[in-house]
Design a protein that fits this description.
Blueprint: H1 2-6, H2 9-17, H3 20-25, H4 28-41, H5 53-61, E1 67-70, H6 73-77, E2 83-86
Antiparallel strand pairs: 1-2
Helix pairs in contact: 2-4, 4-5
Length: 87
Amino acid sequence: MKAAISGDVYLLKQAVLHDPLVGAICAPDEVWQMVDDLLVAQAQWLPQYVSAIPAATLRLKTPRVKTSDWAVAARLAQGKRPLRATV
């Protein structure tokens, strides 16, 4: 909650990493990249992180974690972009 109120990206990444399901299957590099992807994709809904969006966008141009695009029927039917999953 403190991360959401303060707009502190480091706290947000720590909160996501400490989620039991995420922490069980994702390495820290995967979590950091996933949070960057979330911040960029949802920027219009996250005004408290507006100062972090440019850096997240820049980091996503040279990702540290290999991803794949998944063509999920429900998302494609709605005209949304495919999901990206780590490989």
